[in-house]
Amino acid sequence: MKLIQRAKDFLKKNDVIKEMCKTYDITPDFIDLVPMKFGDLDVSARTAKGVITLNYKLLCDGDFFNDYHYLAHELEHFCQQCFGDVATQGANEGDYLANPFEQEGFQRQIEYLDHMYGENKAEDYVEHLLDHHDKDGKEREKLEKVLTEKI
Questions:
Q1: Residue-averaged pLDDT of the chain
Q2: pLDDT tens per residue, range 85-109
Q3: pLDDT at 84 over 60
């Protein structure tokens, strides 16, 4: 729990997360109320029913700080689910990267990576993501443009 609280304390002060909070008309202190836990997942993180679950495997390298970008993505989903105007489409419904709610989560995550580590790190993450999901050609170009919209 100390690791999660340390992450929350850091993210509340981060400019990208503060901007996200403005978008949803909430204070960054709301993060203290967001339920977060570690669990056994097949992905890095997931938000379901207002609870953020982080994969235990993120702790294996001993540098959880470098994984805060997953929380930026999941906090976007938390806000979509709790403060948005419409129900969100689940990550397992249809093409994952074509899902506009997932795209918003990735945009926030990539913006965070750019802010914290620079454009190269953000672009490298996008390349890895598109490779992982076997995207190529015009579809890849389109997704790359959408995902990097905030950097």
A1: 94
A2: 765 655 556 678 999 999 999 999 9
A3: yes
- Domain total of the chain: 1
Whole-angstrom distance, CA of residue 32 vs CA of residue 9 = 8
Q: What is the pLDDT of residues 39-78, one digit of tens each?
A: 999 999 999 988 999 999 999 999 999 999 999 999 999 9
Q: Quick one: DSSP state of residue 118? A: -
- Other Cβ atoms less than 10 A from the Cβ of 99: the count is 18
Q: Is 100 helix (H, G, I), strand (E, B) or coil?
A: helix
Q: What is the DSSP letter of 87?
A: P
| Structure letter (DSSP) for residue 53 | E
Amino acid letter, 118: G
- Which residue segment(s) compose the domain that 108 sits in? 2-147
Q: What are phi and psi of 55, to 5 degrees?
A: -65, 135
Cβ-based neighbours of 104, under 8 Å, separated by 6 or more? 76, 80
